[in-house]
């Protein structure tokens, strides 16, 4: 069965601090895709990153970085030098190649960046 | 600009009434999806469609119906049989996965409230 667990329901940090959002996934498939989405207060989910199961290379995009570790089934997301505009709900998600393109989402982590 | 348009943004329904949420995309995506979001529950899949005139039930399809008569449109009807329809509804679309799973593009959502 496929499952995504985001154990952190809510996190608050002071602006400029670094923060890591955890994501653990379960899948029996060898080919799968992992995603992170951001949901600001406006409600629309914004795509941040996609990783396929064959690419364990970590990625950095500006203040954002992602650490994909198949050995621990984790795909963690770090924001460096956080800003108030980073305040949002962040969703980790999983799609198995054999399951008709459906994406399974974690329950999300609400991030508060305090000025 | 290409994207997904959901309307209306806010919708109020009396108990016992059916309501239809609109979702239109001009991205030429084959697949479209409806998710429901409740506080602390993440996103749950209601229905999805991979091609015109075909759709499948997701995890929580009871009390909902859809149609896919055109590639661009995937309306969702919340029927009176849905016992707890108050929620935030998100529509999404995706390119043909046979090439690669690019993940979803989301609309800005419709917030439905039963009064």
What does this structure look like?
The complex is a heterodimer of chains A (115) and B (115). Chain A is 0% helix and 53% strand. Chain A has 115 residues and is mainly beta. In chain A, the strands form 3 sheets. In chain A, strands 2, 5, 6, 10, 11 and 12 form a 6-stranded mixed beta sheet that branches. In chain A, a hairpin with a 2-residue loop joins strand 7 and strand 8. Chain A starts with a strand and ends with a strand. The model of chain A has no long low-confidence stretch (mean pLDDT 92). With 115 residues, chain B is an all-beta fold. Chain B is 0% helix and 50% strand. Chain B has strands spanning 4-7, 10-13, 19-25, 31-38, 42-51, 54-57, 64-66, 76-78, 87-94, 105-106, 110-114. In chain B, strands 2, 4, 5, 6, 9, 10 and 11 form a 7-stranded mixed beta sheet that branches. In chain B, strands 1-3-8-7 form a 4-stranded antiparallel beta sheet, with no helix packed on it. In chain B, strand 4 and strand 5 (42-51) form a beta hairpin. Chain B is globular and about 40 Å long. The termini of chain B are far apart. Classes of the chains: A mainly beta (115), B mainly beta (115). Chain A binds chain B through residues 9, 33, 35, 37, 42-47, 50, 52, 91, 93, 95, 97, 100-103, 105-108, and chain B through 31, 33, 35, 40-43, 45, 48, 50, 56, 58, 88, 90, 92, 94, 97, 101-109, 111.
């Amino acid at each position: 069965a496929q499952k995504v667990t985001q154990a952190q329901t809510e996190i608050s940090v002071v602006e400029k601090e670094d923060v890591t959002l955890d994501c653990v996934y379960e899948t029996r498939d060898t080919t799968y895709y992992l995603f992170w989405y951001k949901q600001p207060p406006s409600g629309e989910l914004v795509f941040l990153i996609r990783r396929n199961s064959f690419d364990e290379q970590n990625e950095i995009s500006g203040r954002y970085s992602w650490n994909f570790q198949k050995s621990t089934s984790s795909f963690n997301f770090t924001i460096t030098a956080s800003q108030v505009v980073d305040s949002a709900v962040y969703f980790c998600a999983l799609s198995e190649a054999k399951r008709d393109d459906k994406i399974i989402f974690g329950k999300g982590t609400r991030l508060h960046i305090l000025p | 600009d290409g994207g997904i348009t959901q309307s209306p943004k806010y919708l109020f329904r009396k108990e016992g009434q059916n309501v239809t949420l609109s979702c239109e995309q001009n991205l030429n995506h084959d697949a479209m999806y409806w998710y429901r979001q409740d506080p602390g529950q993440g996103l749950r899949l209601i229905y999805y469609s991979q091609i015109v005139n075909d759709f499948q039930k997701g995890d929580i399809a009871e009390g909902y119906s859809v149609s896919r008569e055109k590639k661009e449109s995937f309306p969702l009807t919340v029927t009176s049989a849905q016992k707890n329809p108050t929620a935030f509804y998100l529509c999404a679309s995706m390119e043909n996965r046979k090439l690669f799973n690019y993940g979803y593009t989301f609309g800005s959502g419709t917030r439905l409230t039963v009064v």
